[in-house]
Amino acid sequence: MGDPRLLAVCEPVSAFGTPELETLLADMRDTMRHLNGAGLAAPQIGVGLRVVIFGVEANPRYPEAQAVPFTVLINPRLEPLGAEMEDGWEGCLSVPGLRGLVPRYRRLRYTGVDERGDRIDREASDFHARVVQHEVDHLDGILYPRRIRDLTQFGFTETLFPGQNLADD
């Protein structure tokens, strides 16, 4: 947090199937897996492109979370499906050691393309929708603390959740 690359609006990807894009995606996958993350955005590793990856199967950091298919999402667009919002606890690799209660749309549609430039068009709800919104926010220079409505619900993970050994998202 504080790095200007995390506050910038990212540029769209225009070339697909390139060695540079493949290298970026490999670096992002390795980083996300190493940290047991639910998702990662390119600016989190210093690259200002509109690229996110996400996915959760059996993850010890999210024992009760629904499965989210592993997805490479490039040049994403989000469309809320209804006005219903839901508060949920979030953390972030870019904001280490902290958690906050963040409102997000409960249901949404996301579109974009994959690493080959093939169209993606999906609907998501609950945890899946939350993960997508969190990662896409990074592409617009938004870190989750800016979304918190009540700052009494923002603090150090070990203080808010003693003994739970939660890592950053």
Using brief descriptors, characterize the structure shown.
single chain, 169 residues, alpha+beta, Peptide Deformylase, five-stranded antiparallel β-sheet, three-stranded antiparallel β-sheet, 3 helices, 8 strands, 20% helix, 34% strand, globular
Class by helix and strand content?
alpha+beta
Q: What ranges have pLDDT less than 50 throughout 5 or more consecutive residues?
A: none
What string, H for helix and E for strand, traces the elements in order? Answer: HEEEEEEEHEH
Would you tell me the overall average pLDDT? 93
Strand content: 25-35%
Brief summary:
By secondary structure, the chain is an alpha+beta fold. It is 20% helix and 34% strand.
Describe the structure.
- Helix content is 20%, strand content 34%.
- With 169 residues, it is α+β, with helices and mostly antiparallel strands.
- The chain has one domain: Alpha-Beta Complex (Peptide Deformylase).
Question: Secondary structure elements and their pairing?
Answer:
Blueprint: H1 19-34, E1 39-41, E2 51-56, E3 68-80, E4 85-92, E5 95-105, E6 107-113, E7 119-125, H2 126-139, E8 154-156, H3 157-160
